[in-house]
Design brief:
heterodimer, A: mainly alpha, Ammonium transporter fold, two-stranded antiparallel sheet, 16 helices, B: alpha+beta, Alpha-Beta Plaits, four-stranded antiparallel β-sheet, two-stranded antiparallel ribbon, 23% helix
Chain lengths: 470, 112
């Protein structure tokens, strides 16, 4: 995945991994065959990527489920847990049946084809490219790692209209949204022919990749994508009954703390795993993920200390998540000090959106999916252009249209424009398609439970059980 | 017989219980309750949402006592639970018509 990888590019490709001494002596092999690729797989990479995939799954279940679940009222706890668990399960099935093929086969710049539908042709002797010439992963590893991203992204959306959505229409939405929005977005941002093949056909890449958009681990594909879909959903479904009149305090910030902390841990798989290898560049993404998050948690607390006189736990946890969101597109491109600045900037911006803007516009984004994920994602996407600039200590970008790959010339203004274009495309595509899907579902089978069911709680009415029997 | 209901600050519960044991009080019922009186409420802020909670957590004690012990119990609770600040709570004393011990069927003072 992950645009034009860095790979310690400052050494002009010297650190691009060579699979073996034999290849290194002869120089990298252009367009290697599957037999040659088999010798270019590193067990360290494979082990790290499988661990990363498991970490990203942990971000959805239980981390996101608990983070969200703790913030709703007792009567809706299970509905949130169930929505996340089932979205993950449904998305995994969609991914292997048609998602992987739509996202990661060639075809058009907008979406891949169906040649690998139902994982046709994928076996233990097929391979997926990384960001280094002549370094490969077994294709199953790549299918699995990317699957976890497809699982968490639609699960993020549910926070925006938590406590007031019917389960079955949500599952239908998930399948359609993945198919019409997520898989094409993943293709546009992350698909390219690979470092050993792109030079032979430089147009064999997704649209935003082709523009030169930088999105290391999914600022556009995951966070802006889900954030805007959430906002559209909460507008179509409408406010919760009693919104603004009745108190709806979180039922367990302890759960929220557990969830936020597990998100942070899992995010190392999300960001550092997005390097697709286990090397120095991976450790850079790791440390950036660590310090940007810490900076954002501190910044949110300082803002609250100034504004309210008391730094809240929920605020610190929200800041940490905002920092994780913001560093996601920049994880492999920034230097640690740049990452800290990104973290310090994102929290005040998100704080402004979840407090002032939300209260002024009176939309009921229950768990601030828009305010944290979409806004934080936009700050990160545009900030990436700045912190990636080598003149500011960043890693720049790698040009894979030449063989072997080399560091590209960095154009700060041009990069900012490209990032803005990618953000706008994401907002329009995901916002537009989500609006059509939500409105269509609302007019047909209905998205919202009856007033009585909503008042009594979704747990008992949608799932026939209660979270706490005491 | 008297029935004494006392609403006190939660952190005073152990102290009060100890003092009452010293008097020979053989049992009481304790519940966690919420309510309001002259003490001002608190403000909770969850991200942008601000809630003022005017219901504060208190502990409610219910004690059935013989007439001669009741006055001492009231005095002890008053002295032990006081912090001399608003929100220390209240004590109510009611006449108790009858009491029965379920296990034995004893009634009146014998049941206390």
């Amino acid at each position: 995945m992950i645009r034009k990888m860095i790979s310690g590019m400052t050494a002009a490709g010297l650190s691009l991994g060579m699979a073996s001494a034999a290849f290194a002596q002869a120089g990298p092999i252009k367009a290697p065959t599957a037999e040659q690729m088999a010798t270019m797989v590193n067990k360290g990479d494979v082990a790290w990527m499988l661990v990363s995939a498991a970490l990203v799954l942990m971000m959805s279940i239980p981390a996101l489920a608990l983070f969200y679940g703790g913030l709703v009222r007792t009567k809706n706890m299970l509905s949130v847990l169930m929505q996340v668990l089932m979205i993950v399960s449904v998305a995994a099935l969609c991914w292997v049946c048609w998602g992987y093929s739509m996202a990661f086969t060639g075809g058009s710049p907008y979406v891949g084809g169906l040649s690998k539908a139902f994982l046709a042709g994928v076996s233990t002797s097929t391979y997926a490219a990384t960001f280094s010439n002549n370094v490969y992963l077994p294709e199953y590893v790549y299918v699995i790692f990317q699957m976890t991203f497809a699982c968490i992204t639609p699960a993020l959306i549910v926070g925006a209209f938590a406590e007031r959505v019917k389960f079955t229409p949500l599952m239908i939405f998930t399948v359609l949204w993945l198919t019409l929005v997520y898989f094409p977005m993943a293709h546009m941002v992350w698909y390219f022919a690979g470092p050993d093949f792109l030079s032979d056909n430089t147009s064999d890449a997704g649209l935003i990749y082709g523009w030169g958009g930088l999105d290391f681990a999914g600022g556009t594909v995951v966070h802006i994508n889900a954030g805007i879909a959430g906002l559209v959903g909460c507008l179509v479904i409408g406010k919760r009954l009693g919104f603004g009149k009745e108190a709806t305090p979180p039922h367990s910030l302890t759960m929220t703390m557990i969830g936020a902390s597990l998100l942070w841990v899992g995010w190392f798989g999300f960001n550092a795993g997005s390097g697709l290898e286990a090397n120095a560049a991976t450790s850079l993404a790791f440390i950036n993920t660590f310090v940007a998050t810490a900076a954002a948690a501190v910044a949110w607390s300082i803002v609250e200390q100034i504004k309210h006189g008391k730094p809240s736990m929920l605020g610190a946890a929200s800041g940490a998540v905002a920092g994780l969101v913001a560093i996601t597109p920049a994880a492999g491109y920034a230097a640690p000090m740049g990452a800290i600045i990104l973290g310090l900037v994102v929290s005040p911006v998100c704080f402004f959106f979840v407090t002032t803007v939300k209260n002024a516009l009176k939309y009921d984004d229950t768990l601030d999916v828009f305010g944290v994920h979409c806004i934080g994602g936009i700050v990160g996407a545009i900030g990436t252009a700045i912190v990636a600039d080598p003149r500011l200590g960043g890693q720049g970008w790698v040009d894979y249209t030449v063989f072997p790959a080399k560091a590209g010339t960095y154009d700060l203004v041009g990069q900012i424009i490209t990032q803005v274009k990618a953000v706008v495309l994401t907002l329009v595509l995901s916002g537009g398609v989500s609006a059509i899907l939500f409105i269509a579902l609302d007019k047909t089978i209905g998205l919202r439970p009856t007033e009585e069911a909503e008042r009594e709680g979704l747990d008992i009415n949608e799932h026939g059980e209660r979270a706490y029997n005491m | 017989m008297k029935f004494i209901i006392a609403i006190i600050k939660p952190f005073k519960l152990d102290e009060v219980r100890e003092a009452l044991s010293g008097l020979g009080v053989a049992g009481m019922t304790v519940s966690e309750v919420k309510g309001f009186g002259r003490q001002k409420g608190q403000t909770e802020i969850y991200r942008g949402a601000e809630y003022s909670t005017n219901m504060l957590p208190k502990v409610k004690l219910e004690i059935a006592a013989s007439d001669d012990l009741a006055a001492q119990i009231v005095e002890t609770i008053q002295q032990t639970a006081s912090t001399e600040a608003i929100g220390d709570g209240k004590i109510f004393v009611l006449d108790l018509a009858s009491a029965v011990r379920i296990r034995t069927g004893e009634s009146g003072d014998m049941a206390l």
